[in-house]
Design brief:
The protein is of the alpha/beta class and 323 residues long. The protein has helices at 28-46, 69-80, 101-109, 122-131, 146-160, 176-188, 204-217, 227-231, 251-257, 265-268, 291-294, 301-320; strands at residues 58-63, 84-89, 114-118, 136-138, 167-171, 191-195, 221-224, 236-239, 276-279. It has a five-stranded parallel β-sheet. The protein binds phosphoric acid mono(formamide)ester and norvaline.
């Protein structure tokens, strides 16, 4: 049975045809719209209903790094919406042999309705978006991971009901996850404290941007080197791997540098009693998080991973258009 969501989905015109490169480009109203649409799509899926809002549409998915969640949730998501996804490993397409981003963007624009890209430099995603005639979605760069945070916000809303008055503590590397979480929290009005060791703090430019957004939403953005202080009174405790993709050779050094930044039972005790634990995954048990925490009762990491599907379906519907 095909469910007609069209009438019930209030369409946000300003999202049609847009790129999704960083959360900094999106307003509270737009993020709220995406979260509401994701909720509706999730309900329909749980009821076993088919919602073919992207019938006949094709998403190209360029991967220059590995992925489980991003690849499978985008591919399954577009399929569930009546469209198709094409997995494009950079090892197999001419981009990996030196064809320019600009030429790739122009060629793919003739075949596809949207492009998702996972790559190293944010500037590659920006150039692709600049040159493409179709929406470009950032599926992770060294700097940002906005799709993950969209799913994280959906998860937090499901667990906690509202964002205002909540505190998220991010413990670990001031990386792509820390950056996107700071921006996402600032937009929705949720306080965030990032605890990272010296030398691994988030980029100053992103901190300033998050603080500027937070000044309007009423959120507080705090950067510290003290994990206990950050976790104090937190509603959500979040961590990520110490060595991200592309930093594998730094693993041993990072294990030493991040030694005091593990999310374990002792650290969780500083958070609120009903605090939830989130992790974008993949996780390294025994490094950034202990098994008892990630597999314990506070952990919502698999709900969070599932929400990638629902959040990104909403994103694709909003950007790639409802016919
Ligand atoms: N969280 C996340 O993006 O996972 P993958 O690397 O498996 O896509
Ligand atoms: N910071 C991690 C996130 C993985 C989803 C990385 O970039 O590898």
């Amino acid at each position: 049975m095909v469910v007609e969501l069209k009438q019930s989905v209030f369409k946000l015109k300003e999202l049609e045809g847009r790129d999704f490169l960083t959360l900094a480009d999106y307003t509270y109203k737009e993020i709220t719209y995406l979260l509401d649409l994701a909720k509706q799509l999730k309900i329909q899926r749980k009821r076993g209903k088919t919602v073919h809002l992207l019938k006949g549409k094709t998403l190209g998915m360029i991967f220059e790094k590995s992925s489980t969640r991003t690849r499978v949730s985008f591919e399954a998501g577009i399929y569930q919406l009546g469209g198709n996804g094409i997995f494009l490993s950079s090892k197999d397409i001419q981009l990996g042999r030196g064809e320019t981003i600009a030429d790739t963007a122009k060629v793919l624009s003739g075949y596809l309705d949207g492009i998702m890209i996972r790559t190293y430099s944010q500037s590659v995603v920006e150039e692709l978006a600049e040159e493409a005639l179709i929406p470009v979605i950032n599926g992770l760069t060294d700097r940002f991971h906005p799709c993950q945070v969209l799913a994280d916000l959906l998860t937090i809303k499901e667990r906690k009901g509202a964002f205002q008055g909540l505190k998220l503590a991010y413990i670990g590397d001031g990386n792509n996850m820390a950056h996107s979480l700071m921006l996402g929290s600032a937009i929705v009005g949720m306080d965030i404290a990032v605890a990272a060791p010296e030398g691994y703090q988030p980029e100053e430019e992103v901190v300033l941007k998050a603080k500027a957004i937070a000044a309007n939403s009423g959120a507080n953005v705090q950067i510290t080197e003290d994990p206990k202080g950050a976790v104090q009174q937190a509603d959500i405790v979040y961590t990520d791997v110490w060595a991200s993709m592309g930093q594998e050779e730094e693993q041993a050094k990072r294990e030493l540098d991040f030694a005091g930044f593990q999310v374990n039972g002792a650290l969780m005790n500083f958070a609120k009693e009903d605090a939830s634990f989130l992790h974008c995954l993949p996780a390294h048990r025994g490094e950034e998080v202990t098994t008892d925490v990630i597999d314990g009762k506070a952990s919502v990491v698999f709900q969070q991973a599932e929400n990638r599907l629902h959040a990104q379906k909403a994103l694709m519907v909003a950007l790639m258009g409802v016919e």
